[in-house]
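debug: dumping io for the single-chain case to check the tokenizer round-trip. Nothing else runs in this session.
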Amino acid sequence: MRTQVAIIGSGPSGLLLGQLLATIGVETIILERSSREHVLGRVRAGVLEQGTVDLLGEAGAADRLHAQGLLHAGISLAFDGRLHRIDMTALTGGKHVTVYGQTEVTLDLMQKREAAGLTTVFETSNVALHDFDGAAPFVTYAKDGATHRIDCDFIAGCDGYHGVSRRSAPEGALKTFERQYPFGWLGVLAEVPPADHELVYANHQRGFALCSMRSPQRSRYYVQVPADERVEAWSDERFWDELRRRLPPQTAAAVTTGPSFEKSIAPLRSFVAEPMRFGWLFLVGDAAHIVPPTGAKGLNLAASDVRYLFAGLREFYRDKSEAGLDAYSAKALARVWKAVRFSWWMTSMLHYFPEAGEFGQRIQEAELDYLVHSKAASTALAENYVGLPY
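debug: decoded output
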């Protein structure tokens, strides 16, 4: 087989890149190690920057997002027993975010790809990337007991943190930066109305909590737990009780409880790999970087990587210029590190760090108090939350 761009991974970044390239007539084949059902069953983030929404629109995959997505003009910070709202729209000249689940983004893009008859190969194994530092890169994989080969111009590694793409970088060519946090997020999904019409981020001596949602009838809640906590130790009743303890009284009273249909613990870490290009192999999204979910940047960073790579590939096929591809890694990483900084800052300000003691708690309280009473500080948060410019 031959294609112009071989895409490894059928998550949102791989599907979005494939759909954008299809709009300019560039051929792609996507390889995915999991089944279609498994990909669609992943529960992930759901806060989209305006740039991400615009990019999905450019790909022709935003109709359901515009119909069902929830526009949010602000967030609330909960501390000292009270709610403090940050009016992001007023502070950023009219910008906002859209709440729309990553699972729904994946479904929209997948259906768009299938309707166009574009090739995605699921349940592949032994995927290997070859000769991407030369003139004739190709990918091999196993499927149904046979080995297959795809010759291509470029390889886009959109296969996440555990995928083969980053591991294929030449020995010694990759530099990584990592910060592991001593806690995780225990999250539940429940078919109950959310406690607030916008997200609530809570700082509490018992630990961080977040009130979020996927729709007016479906809520997503999180509480901070130790990194070695087991999800089996948490009944629904225990979760709801702990969540309400960490919220201001009026917010706790607005929490509607009900049986959860998904419950999991996500570890928190920051991770960046540099560079994001090796010859004709380009790393995209979680293959190159991970951020704590506190700043709602994971999916949005993947989309910004896609934007830069798509622009470079479009320039290559349209103008026969490699300038955009040459600039890809530096452009993407400049935005990545700003999002890593923001996510680290939000995480540090809102979570309980046992080793920090009472001094650390007072510093957090002072930081939060300054943040909500300073227009300059509130503006900085709002600008980062709605998404820095490309």
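debug: round-trip ok. Residues 323-350 form the longest helix (28 residues).
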